[in-house]
């Protein structure tokens, strides 16, 4: 009779532990963790659930991980979730680590494009003007960017909007970021 009571306590504790681990597994988000640490945390939760005879499928693990990633992984998450055949845990970890490494490189290097001029200290700017090349008259909105010489020639659009010194950021279509 005492063994039946102990077994009953163990089973009840096991179910409570499964509920707690399952809730933690489903609710864990990446936050500030690097991909590898987030993966290790999620894998340890799945292993703990497996030790309690509550197995989590590889697909459920991957989908839960993708759902918990930060917004900077949103594009790669969509790509991974729609892959056929569905990728396994290790493949997704590798893809996310490569994506994280590319994000880290982008943060270290500026994303602004500049064109080179003969003088490295003088930035190359464009004078966006609607003036034509003949007698300076306006030609119905034809656009021709003209390199602006150092010191300037006083040109520009008739309303005074010279879009000089505007840098154009690089847009990465794979990540959806600038």
Automatic annotation (TrEMBL):
It holds the Pfam family Retrotran_gag_2. This is Uncharacterized protein LOC120278447. It comes from Dioscorea cayennensis subsp. rotundata. The lineage of its organism: Eukaryota, Viridiplantae, Streptophyta, Embryophyta, Tracheophyta. Residues 112-128 have a biased composition (Polar residues). Residues 109-178 are annotated as: Disordered.
